[in-house]
Design goal:
26% of the residues lie in helices and 25% in strands. The chain is built from 7 helices and 9 strands, in the order H-H-H-E-E-H-E-H-E-H-E-E-H-E-E-E. A hairpin with a 2-residue loop joins strand 1 (80-83) and strand 2 (86-88). Helix 2 runs antiparallel to helix 3.
């Protein structure tokens, strides 16, 4: 039996105080060894090198963001179902997209596709504030509860259509999209700050991660790795 499967009878959540605004307290966390193994075997070994990203991935309890029937697989190298035909991304993909954002502590981030809230929690370890939108109201509510329970005070969850972004808080230093649109929504490009980056899976039958950079002269796009995300819904 793998460590990821053996560790979970019931995992207490480890919390401490960090620059992210997360309220934390020193509680023994039986899942810590599984997370550290995940970081070494799934992330560092595949080229994730940013120390801050690796630290965030070693801290955020992925098991707290998945349903009870799949908690034993929380640190396996794969996406997991979270209900409503949605998934929590593979840990490597979460780390890859987070590293691609080149986050700084002062950044304000927009996430499209909250899902379980796991990606938002990872980013919240690293930046000032995360605004995240989920089109499925039940998932938005569950993610909000999970994030609050874990003490993430710097994440704001909204139920809405991600195609329109969140204009009230724009411009954003970084935007991450965790569902795949057929093309990048113009509203998101408009809400990205000059000098900002957007990381988004783009495509239908075939998808690739695209890193979009915005400058005063316009935007550039770089295609990177092939991926498979659930489709982004709500296109106007």
């Amino acid at each position: 039996m793998s460590t990821a499967r053996a560790f979970f009878a019931f995992c207490a959540i480890s919390l401490s105080t960090g620059a992210s605004g997360r309220t934390q307290a020193p509680i023994i966390d039986p899942a810590q060894s599984a997370r550290l193994r995940m970081v070494e075997t799934q992330l560092r070994s595949r080229g994730i090198t940013d120390p801050a990203v690796l630290k965030a991935m070693s801290r955020v309890p992925r098991h707290a963001f998945v349903p009870v029937d799949v908690k034993a697989f929380a640190y396996d190298d794969r996406p997991l179902p979270i209900g409503r035909n949605q998934t929590i991304s593979q840990p490597y993909v979460v780390a890859y997209m987070t590293e691609a954002l080149r986050l700084q502590p002062e950044h304000a981030i927009l996430e499209i596709g909250t899902g379980s809230g796991y990606q938002a929690a990872v980013i919240a370890e690293l930046v000032k504030h995360v605004y995240t939108i989920e089109i499925i109201p039940d998932l938005a509510s569950e993610a909000r509860r999970s994030l609050a329970t874990l003490g993430y005070r710097n994440v704001e969850v909204r139920s809405g259509n991600g195609y329109f972004g969140w204009a009230d808080h724009a411009p954003f230093d970084r935007i991450i999209v965790t569902a795949a649109p057929p093309e990048i929504p113009q509203a998101l490009i408009d809400q990205l700050a000059v000098g900002g980056l957007m990381v988004v899976p783009v495509g239908t039958a075939s998808q690739e991660i695209v890193i979009l950079s915005k400058t005063a002269a316009g935007v550039t796009q770089q295609k990177t790795i092939p991926v498979r995300f659930v489709p982004m819904v709500g296109k106007p």
